[in-house]
Amino acid sequence: MDGEQVNGRAGPQRQGGRSRVPSPWLRRCRGRWKGRWAGRPDGRDDTESGRVRLPWPSTALITVVVLAGSTFAAHAQEGERASLDVFARVLLVVASGLLLWRLRHPVVVVFGTAVVAALYLGAGYPYGPVFLTVAVACFAAVVRGHRRAAWTALGLLWAVHLLVSHWWYRWLPPAGDDPAPFGQELVVAGWALAVVALAELVRSRREQWARDRAERAQAARRRAGEERLRIARELHDVLAHSLSVINVQAGVGLALLDSDPEQARTALGAIKSASKEALGEVRQVLDTLRAPGDAPRAPAPGLDRLPELVEQAARAGLAVDVSGRPPRLSPHTDLAAFRIVQEALTNVVRHSGSRHARVRLDASGTTLRLRIDDDGPATGADAGGSGNGLAGMRERAAALGGTIEAGPRPEGGFRVLAVLPTTSGKDQGAREDR
Question: Alpha helices of 38-178 — where are they, by DSSP H?
């Protein structure tokens, strides 16, 4: 089956009856590159269990460049510096070969290449691409967070060059060498600073990319959590209200089944109507899970459906008086107001002995006040609720910047008072996005 999940993971995609499963080599490459761009010190992604592979291709290329460039530099500096011999070429190969471990052991490599370069300079061999190995090692160390080691290695190499060029040249090859001009030291120091500055720039960019990616992931998790909470509230409000009506009507039907069949038939009709409406609203909520990017097939309920709530409450034996007219509300506020009234009336049906409730709507400026009262008293019976009704109402109001007050009235009964803004920040944000 397409999209089938096995053990919590997406199953292989099929095309033309054949499974398309990425090869292990391709998965390792993807994981390695994801890990490197994420700024992991070892270049590995969390899904890759093995150690990072040695960078053979780049190291081989650097070795060729260093050997060829040093040979060219030896011809250009012939008579000024010592000629390349076997020891010189061994030093060049060792310096380049150390770069194989620059991803696993950047500190060891940066100090190792600096020492080899210092030996190369002390032996009087021609200036040339040997410094490239130090630059690459320093770059790798800084990018992986070992800034102090990179700075220290470059500082030691520069100090050795200073000593060799101005004091130790008398005792070191080539014979008859003269001291180097101090302007050359500025060039060397500038070269070292440029290498470190470039490495620092790359490191800071990678860290910024990693932070941005983490923030986007956190925002996505937060949005997913908010969406789960919204769906949970919707399902709770729909099912709690409808099942409360069904429960009351089922009790009436059972009680009157023998003595008053016609009234029992009316109760069964109310059960059918409430269950059909509940199924429709639950289906609407579940449709948003199947296709979260699509618009809902039916508009979200609002205070224009308040007469339907009054009719459903009447079928459950609760008379509801409504005063005031709903103002023009934003979609989010309209839905929240409807659900708050629905939950409040559901709680009256469940927990109150009163068969009469009052709903008052009062709009003033940019504020809507909803007040739902019943005369009580509380029945104290277990109506099978989840206990999340008041919490859900408070969450809805808080999400819009409103408030909920719920508690006993001084004259008896219970009151729910909601203060909501007529225009929510969510709707303003949606208009700005468009």
Answer: 56-76, 86-97, 106-122, 130-143, 147-166
Long-range contacts of 204-207 (CB under 8 A, 24+ apart): 206/37, 206/39, 206/143, 207/39
- Segment 319-324 shows an average pLDDT of 91
Whether the CA torsion 140, 143, 148, 150 is positive or negative: it is positive
Mean pLDDT of 36-63: 63
User: What is the greatest pairwise CA distance in the chain?
Assistant: 127
Helix, strand, or coil here: 327? coil
Rg (CA), the chain: 38
pLDDT per residue over 257-273, tens digit each? 778 888 777 778 777 77
Q: What does each C-alpha distance from 401 to 97, 349, 367, 397 come to in angstroms?
A: 63, 28, 11, 6
Percent of the chain with pLDDT over 90: 22
Q: Is 239 exposed, middle or buried (0-12, 13-18, 19+ CB in 10 A)?
A: middle
Q: How many helices (H) and strands (E) does the chain have?
A: 12, 9
* Closest by CA position to 142, among listed 101, 206, 199, 104: 199
Comparing CA positions, the residue from 135, 137, 145 lying closest to residue 192 is: 135
Cis-peptide into 179, omega within 30 deg: no
Whether 198 shows a pLDDT value over 80: the answer reads yes
CB atoms inside a 10 Å sphere around CB 126:
23
Using an 8 Å Cβ cutoff, are 423 and 368 in contact?
A: no
0.85 exceeded by pTM? no
5's CB contacts (< 8 A; 6+ apart) are 11
